[in-house]
Amino acid sequence: MLLRRTLIALAIASGLAAPAVAQAQTQAQTSDAKPNPRVVITTTEGAITVELAADKAPITTANFLKYVDRKLYDGSTFYRASKPPGQTTNDYGSIQGGLRDNVKKKLPPIAHESTLKTGLHHGDGTISMGRYAPGTAQADWVICVGDMSYLDATATDPGFAAFGHVTDGMPVVRQILGEPTDPNAGVGAMKGEILVHPVKIVSIRRAPPPDPAAAAPATPPAAAAPKP
Fold this sequence. Notes:
The protein is α+β, with helices and mostly antiparallel strands and about 230 residues long. The chain is about 25% helix and about 25% strand. The chain has an 8-stranded antiparallel beta barrel. The longest helix has about 30 residues, at about 1-30. The protein is globular.
């Protein structure tokens, strides 16, 4: 009888240990994964922190970081605020920033990364590349306010290349969206959406990676095996 109890206790202990080992292996794999880069967009209206989806949209993210690392966005602006006609609140639309017409600072166009391939979507806080035809994106981008999934790619529409999302600073984004626009400025889809006073982008810099130790959950103590 004593031997039987001992064997049962060992079996229970093994069953309890297996999930703990699996959890440790999962945590080790997670810690080995390289975190996505983050950047801080410092404007005259406040700061916006963006996490870039390097794991899902590597081409677009790498292009954006080239501008950041070369400080090409320093002194540029958010120059466009787009809202549906007649909307007075600042909870839906988009703001556009970048180099606009400063061709001297622009790098070569990049390949289009469809959301059908990246799995990203245009939701509240999504950052996405501006472009003309697919494959023409260079230096300008938009930040979405609200669900703008109509910008996602479909079987018949290439959509736009989402490549990250705002993690902090959406009040600043909405404030810029509410800035007055010139009804006579802009052409085509941008008609009436150009800010009267563009918001200056003081700088865009990489943010330090988050401390994994601070974010990691505490490991629960191992359960003791029952006594025979």
